[in-house]
């Protein structure tokens, strides 16, 4: 009787689990690793979920294949971190046809029919762009350099990703109002440390008067630091370093003085998406657009805040 009862309980509980297919972009950065961990530690069986995880190796076609797989497996929900903003209508139309709700995490998509997804959770990329330039204004003023001509290079993320689109737009919009700031060059480093180093090496060969690097994630910033040191300059001193994400390593670089500021983009979307699913399961409505809270961390607050960080 005991064996039957426990088998029955397992069968019932397996049937009760909410199955979630998660089409993740890849493992290109510390941020992505923390984002994945946030989902894997939230979507557990004890929390009532069965998570089917797919790593697309930074390729949109792999994400599309994963979504088709999830549809075949008749998952209850699909979560997508869309690598770029376009190219999703067809496959999300297939999910809609199959009656599977789609929740977007992290980056956004451009679609004419926004019923193709139920909700989006992520960072305010445009505001993050503004945050970087507004921090630079304050830093230069504090250092008596507000009247200097300032030469800037921009290491962009994956072109066409909403993180890149928003951050670049925010930076360029404010630079346009600041005649003293000169954007010498911008180029994608694909959000990776290796590519960031490579692009910074080429920038340093082209320009010997770079004052500021804005890297659209910390990992490309770390690569740029290596290139700057190899060129005999001191990152954080000879060249002001600004980057995005605010992972633990970035805090350590700020405290060491190699990174002047990290603009936060919170990766902990797991609990937020789980909350959305639980609400949908209960027949409740959910907000379509849900921004996560984000800060700006520099030498003034990094040491005090680092102990409170979870990623
Ligand atoms: C931002 C996210 C970006 C991070 C990068 O929400 O999409 O992708 O800034 C990551 O580190 O690769």
Automatic annotation (TrEMBL):
CDD domains: PBP1_galactofuranose_YtfQ-like (cd06309). The keyword Signal applies. One of its GO terms (molecular function) is carbohydrate binding. Residues 26-263 form the Periplasmic binding protein domain. Pfam families: Peripla_BP_4. It is found in: Cell envelope. Its main location: other. Keywords: Signal. The keyword Amino-acid biosynthesis does not apply. Belongs to the bacterial solute-binding protein 2 family. This is Monosaccharide ABC transporter substrate-binding protein, CUT2 family. The lineage of its organism: Bacteria, Bacillati, Chloroflexota, Anaerolineae, Anaerolineales.
